[in-house]
């Protein structure tokens, strides 16, 4: 079992008590940001705008503020997931939090992301899933990175929502290429049979509403493959819970 994330959490906690911290977004030095909430109140207000209209199903930013609107893409090809909730758009400076979590092991950011997802759910009066799981990393990437950023977000999110988390429900059988620069057909081939459900936990999804946690939703292809799989094995509903949603131009 990998203990690195726990040790990093502990180290960050010690540092936060010993030293003034810098806000992760505006670099202001103050005592307010902590190991668990690493941005200042001004940045929280400025960058997490709850009124952004989004597609109900894939969380794509929309012009019209209507809780039930769907984008053209979701209307023409209906995804397998029922709903996506995203705390923000993937754009500067918030993309730095995503990159910081992924590459610099700034695990304090995972707690902030979980807080923002939970607040977005509350703002949208979203129905809580019955069970949470996280988009898994491939075996090689997990070894390289040492932790799965989606799971690190799912852990505090499960606590905040008082929901059970099943970290081993989904398994990624192999490492896949980054989806961003592939065509639609290539994306599907890239992910074909990439995920399976852990047979040990199949009994937990029958008739249940499953929440799938990830850091960013880009093309939505991975989340769609996962939702298809969960539905095939009896999940009644699938909601994606993500920190950031890319805009169409950043696909
Ligand atoms: Zn700030
Ligand atoms: Zn959509």
Overview of this protein structure:
- It is built from 9 helices and 8 strands.
- With 251 residues, the protein is an alpha/beta fold.
- The strands form 3 sheets. A 4-stranded parallel sheet has the order 3-8-7-4. The chain has a two-stranded antiparallel sheet with strand order 1-2. A two-stranded antiparallel sheet has the order 5-6.
- Helix 9 links the parallel strand 7 and strand 8 (237-245).
- Helix 5 crosses helix 7 (149-161).
- The model has no long low-confidence stretch (mean pLDDT 84).
- One zinc ion is lined by residues 55, 57-58, 60, 70-71, 73-74.
Supply the key terms.
four-stranded parallel sheet; Rossmann fold; alpha/beta; two-stranded antiparallel sheet; 9 helices; binds zinc ion; single chain; 251 residues; globular; 8 strands
> Architecture, CATH level 2?
3-Layer(aba) Sandwich
Rg over alpha carbons = 18 Å
Principal-axes geometry comes out as: globular
Major sheet: 4 strands, parallel
How confident overall, as mean pLDDT?
84
The structural class is alpha/beta
How helical, in percent, are the residues?
A: 25-40%
Strand and helix map with partners:
Elements: H1 4-18, E1 21-22, E2 29-30, H2 41-47, H3 72-76, E3 83-89, H4 95-103, H5 108-123, E4 131-134, H6 139-145, H7 149-161, E5 170-172, H8 184-191, E6 195-197, E7 209-217, H9 221-232, E8 237-245
Parallel strand pairs: 3-8, 4-7, 7-8
Antiparallel strand pairs: 1-2, 5-6
The protein binds zinc ion (2 copies).
Brief characterization of the structure:
The chain is of the alpha/beta class. The chain is built from 9 helices and 8 strands.
